[in-house]
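Exercise 7. Predict the joint structure of the components listed below.
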Amino acid sequence: MDFLAPTSWAEALETKAAHPDALPVAGGTDVMVELNFDHRRPAALLDLTRVPELQEWSRDAGRIRLGAGVTYSRVITELGGALPGLAMAARTVGSPQIRNRGTVGGNLGAASPAGDSHPALLAAFAEVEIASVRGTRVVPVAEFFTGVKRSVLEADELIAAVRVTPPAGPQQFCKIGTRNAMVIAVSAFGFALHPDRRVVGTGIGSAAPTPRPAPEAAAFLAGELEAAGLWDSRGPLPEGLATDFGRRVRDAAAPIDDVRGSAAYRLHALSVMARRAATWAWDSYRDENRSAAA
Amino acid sequence: MRIELTVNGTRREADDVWEGESLLYALRERLGLPGSKNACEQGECGSCTVYLDGTPVCACLVAAGQAQGREVTTVEGLAGEELDPVQQAFVEKGAVQCGFCTPGFLMSTKDLLERNPEPTDPEIREALAGNLCRCTGYEKILDAVRAAAVAKR
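Solution:
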């Protein structure tokens, strides 16, 4: 096995092009488990922790560009205000030790259906910036995942960053596990209100072969809010609307039975999480109005 | 491959490090520092917690090569002439049963109290969420953390 440790982004891309079978490693919270348990023996490890460009985040034309190597701990402390949904998801990751190492880029690279970042990124309509020596391309998160632990990444490509627009409305993240800390989600749900565009964002985790949005449910809720004039009036949600939304989110999932939970439980949990997330977010949206009027 | 790093303030070298090896293995088996414990090897139990450039991490999830040139502090580096106040509090409160998880709890507790000298109970529980005690001696551990916070003031 080779251990490749580039110290610049240009060198990292050249190294990946020269060693397409090298396994990128950042925080190691997924990769090292696979090595420790002999589940994987890559030809080489490509250590990305010495690439300074990956450890930075910046504001660019009103968007946040989050370097792939920014840890969950930093998302929580530095971006809790700008990216609230992602920060809520980050707070549910593992433990302090794991959040100090795990990165959003690494989460995407592993492409687990249970990755905690993914529902929040889906609900925020985030984009993944992918690079190689051939150039850079930008892929919506909803199109990034292609199967269980599979993504659109080509063998010579690396994840450079995630691009997210700070929200115009409230965001929520819910995760069900057997305890609060150190769990892989049984199922998870990300939710965002985008009142500037009168759109709803959704993200389903751990309840399908890939993380996925629930576009029909999102369009239904946004349409009902529009029809009742609620985006402007910020009145209370009509009775049953959040429940109906939850059912439609549930219908967008395709879970399996596994050691963490049954498909039936996951479906039920999703409908409850989606109802609660929509209600909580809508209550925050109404509160914003009340504080603005006060 | 060879790695060079600073461990507990001393420059150390290890030869014949396998490229896929963890920092935990290198510390225990190549550098003679068995204080960091090897249990789950998947970041669940926290018994291998060390500081990497001052930040608590699970040494089992750091590739040894990632620690090249970095500063590592292990439980062996906590005590000076006397025990660290956190260690002393664990002794006095009987927060040690079999002792296997203790190094990890000490590292997490010391880090917590440096960031937050007067933690509430929920804050202590959150800070220690990545450390498991299979003896289930959590009540005494919480007592020790509270006592260490008082002692450090």
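Discussion. Chain A touches chain B through 29 residues (CB under 8 Å).
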